[in-house]
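#random but structural
TW: two for the price of one
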Amino acid sequence: MIITRGANRASFMWGSGVTRSTHNNRIERLWVEVGSQYVRAWRAFFYRLEQLHGLDASNPHHLWLIHYLFLDDINKDGKEFRYGWNFHPVSGTAGSPADMRLMGQVEHGMYADDYADVHPGILSSYLGVSGAVRQRSQGETGAGQDPEETGEDDEEPWQDSADLREAALAELQERIQADNEKHFNHEPVKVPRHYSPFDTDEALNAFNEGILGVIHEGIIPFGFDVRDEEWVDEEYPTIGHIPGGRGRTKGYDIPLPVHIWKPRAVRWAQGLHVLNRLKDIIESSEGYNGTGI
């Protein structure tokens, strides 16, 4: 993030514990908007899958299935939020973020650069000059020195520019990390493991075929609390709960409209049903013959 956007931006919590909250209000407002517009709803939905529909958050295969079924939908929501955010009016400026970007391009033009993804302030601070500093021999000033008189061997062998750029970026990342260590006030968040339950392409293809068939046929499996007859005594919930507070006894409620979130719960049940059946077939060494899903 620092390489791409530069240091001391409002998109990162810079400074001491005293100043962080007062100097980062813009990114804090953006985080609130991201959460309220779509992230909290997905979070509440995943809690619902745990509570009602068989999700085991400690099972890496279940987390893989979450990615398989819903990652495209989550990315779509993120893109829709980004579009809305880029065109919303910004107080104290003329127009939206998209307007400001366009006017900047009109005023300053556009150019292609190998380091286009690196913030110019970072380039200036860490690179400064083009190429590595040359180490000169004793008595050599570099002012009109004849290369034949230096007594040095030939220059280093030619290296591919892509390799040099990759090495330079790696070194740049290490230097930025070292210089900004004081701003990192906690260990990186541990990401739960998720990996495919299938060891072969054949098994994965069988899963793809199975879930497409179940969805196409409109099969809704029993035992996952997604069928209408499993909710005879009460209605399917329209509110999701995100636990919080000490002991996770508090939290807040999030609206989850049935017409949006129940079909997704059904899709989860279908995916988990196919996954469980196929794993049973594989583990029983019966092989896959295209049936029994």
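TW: number two ↓
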Amino acid sequence: MAHSHGPTCIPPANPLLCAMCNEEGARCSGCLEVRYCSRSCQRSDWPVHKLVCKAFSEFSDASRPSIHHKRALVFAEDKDLPCFAWLHVQPREDNNEITSDDLEGKVPVPQLEPYLGTVEEFLSEGGTEREESTNPVLRRKIGHGITVAGRQRTNQIDSLPGSHRANKSLLAVDKELPEIWSGNVVAYGFMEDTERIQDLDLMDFRHVVDIIRHIYDHVRREYSGKIDGSTVTGAFIPCAAEEKLGCRVFEILPVSAAQCDAQSEVASPIMTRIGIPLVFRRLPLETRWRDRKLGLPRELIGWNPTLRPFDPTIPLCDRRHGVGSAVVVRKDGKPLCQTHVAAFVDYARNKVASYCHDNHETARGVLDSCTKEDFMVWYDGWKLQASCMDVDVPSPYDVEPDADQDLASATALAGME
């Protein structure tokens, strides 16, 4: 289940920026490597930074074994902590038979076999390489490329605890990360213009953690969105942190038709009252923003302001409700579109706003005022002002079912005859 990002301009690399946000920072007085804009950002990074800070001193330039060794990061399966390592780099021999462009298409070549096994073993066991030149959390250029290589276990992400040997050094970063990796994970740097391997440092360790978390979140979303059988057209609604990280407010995507018959995990009595009941499914909170401020109060990091107005009977900022991103479908299986989702959200907000600003209104009174007729009148006026939306779509009450849903319904009826 891929959630694309809105069009944002990625600024050029700036080595003066904080490791945790996009403000300028000063070098840490301890390690003299990582930059922080404030003590707050430094404290936020400390649980991750401390894992390798002390050991980094053993990998100074003076301790480099040769000019053919570059500083890399290894998340070893059997080690308690991630660590730096001297990665041997040598030119590729032209007469070698290359079995993978992904692994040996660069000159010179990092010698990964001590950590990942032979190329053949690596590829046959789910080995992948991910190259990044942009920090996916901060959405800014790093200044060089970083490759993360390891074996992914995407088909076993929800397997029972103990069903595989967990990577202990990844476990030190986040308890969830070993779910998708088997064996060691290695990260190394390269220059984008020449593809020459280059050293990684403590600032890069933060980038690597962000990249690995981003990979985990992506795989987790893909796995949780796996669809067996028929689909309907639903929408992804990001929480406040996801919006800050660039996710579109409403992303239309295929969803399993089985969700239409499930119990909604977010109450939406307003939608039931207007005759278009919705079914929401919450998604696991993302790992990539768990220690980031993102310009939001900490208690609101996972809050989903878009979901809250659908139920006026609970407080707007009650952390027990509306937390996290969600996928939504119509209970009747008819397709959602961005215009309709935006209209539903704005209608609910409008109703809740009247409740908040009018002391004579009660939550029950708000619900009583929500009817199909009331929504239709409001919707006609809303379309005149919604200049950024496709207002030529039919009314939500006139939408035809998805073809896939029609086929599933016909099959179900045939089975009942």
